[in-house]
Specification:
Elements (H helix, E strand, L loop, with lengths): L1 H26 L2 E7 L6 H10 L8 E7 L7 H10 L4 E5 H11 L5 E4 L20 E5 L5 H12 L5 E6 L4 H18 L2 E6 L6 H11 L3 E4 L3 H5 L1 H10 L4 E3 L2 H6 L3 E5 L1 H16 L10 E2 L3 E6 H6 L6 H6 L2 E3 L2
Parallel strand pairs: 1-2, 1-3, 3-4, 4-5, 5-11, 6-7, 6-8, 8-9, 9-10, 12-13
Antiparallel strand pairs: 10-12
Length: about 325
């Protein structure tokens, strides 16, 4: 009897030092910080995938959500808030948020979503071996903006004047796109003229100024702000008779003529997998950054009709989706 008691005690002692510790770790509610410059319709894809993986806010995880509401200057302070809350992982939506999170911590794992060029931005050493505490998805590849201008040229042969709507507040990502746009414009013999919009309140003035310049078309650079006001941008482009192209499917669905962009939904979905692996113990430094390989061309046929444009059959055949409402 004494021998059995000793065995049970020994097992209990071993369990308390090993298995119970592992059990406590597995049942501990992880705290996820989410940092975004503004609300994004693709966020729900991320949360859906997390739920599919078994993470439910208030039960298996606790979510600390921070949005800058379009004011990029607030991102560093919001990132520090998440660090002070001692979250287990920070999810950073797009480049500026990832940079803010990186500036706030070098130890808490960071999962970036849709960062355009994480190497050039100084976030990771390389895509294959990120190093440090950052990994995630990169959703913009070289050539996207050039392809958008090429689509305008194919639709409007001989096009020369193109207005560019951009957001100087999102400086790093916007400058990357502008560099590519200028290189493509030189190749296609187009003249670009830039028009700023840092907030929704500046859109009316920006479009009124664009209309006075009488460009043949409009390029709307990819930006979280422009995604949140997609319907307003689409309405203004139609009002001013501007065939517009941009870098988010959301804008075409809202009424912009065309969009060519990476599959952002996939980037958000895949980011949830990174969070899962990090919570389970993987190190960000060991998880290669995943670059988007699928790109979508979306054409709004209804908008083309409103603008009096006939879409070439070749363009419609190339489109991944044609909006007809």
């Amino acid at each position: 009897m004494k021998r059995r008691t000793l065995v049970v005690c020994a097992l209990a002692t071993g369990l308390s030092s090993t298995s119970l510790a592992a059990l406590a770790q597995s049942t501990k509610r992880s705290r996820i910080g989410y940092l975004a410059p503004s609300r994004n319709p693709y966020e729900e894809v991320f949360w859906q995938e997390l739920r599919r993986l078994g993470y439910i806010d208030g039960k298996t995880i606790a979510v600390e959500y921070r949005s800058a509401d379009g004011d990029f200057t607030r991102l560093p302070a919001l990132a520090k808030q998440l660090v002070n809350l001692n979250v287990n992982v920070i999810v950073a939506q797009v480049t500026q948020a990832a940079i803010a999170a990186s500036g706030a911590t070098k130890t808490i794992p960071i999962v970036m979503i849709g960062v355009s060029d994480p190497v050039a931005s100084g976030l990771v050493t390389s895509l294959g071996r990120p190093g440090g505490n950052i990994t995630g998805t990169s959703a913009v590849a070289a050539g996207v903006v050039g392809k958008q201008l090429e689509l305008l040229r194919d639709l409007l042969p001989g096009i020369a004047q193109v207005a560019v709507l951009w957001n100087p507040a999102n400086s790093i990502f916007q400058q990357q796109q502008l560099k590519e746009a200028k290189e493509a414009a030189a190749k296609f013999r187009m003249h670009l003229k830039l028009f700023e919009a840092r907030s929704p309140d500046e859109l009316d003035h920006a479009f009124a100024t664009i209309a006075k310049d009488r460009p043949a078309a409009l390029l709307v650079l990819g930006d979280p702000l422009f995604v949140t006001v997609a319907k307003r941008i689409a309405d203004l482009a139609i009002q001013h008779r501007l065939p517009a192209v941009s870098g988010s499917r959301v804008l075409a669905e809202a009424g912009v003529l065309m969009t060519y962009a990476p599959d952002y939904q996939e980037a958000f979905r895949r980011a949830a997998g990174y969070v899962d692996r990090i919570i389970k113990g993987d190190r960000p430094a060991d998880l290669a950054v995943e670059r988007s390989t699928r790109f979508e061309l979306v054409v709004n046929a209804t908008t083309a009709t409103k603008l009096g444009l006939t879409l070439p059959q070749s363009l419609l055949l190339r489109a991944d989706h044609v909006v007809k409402h």
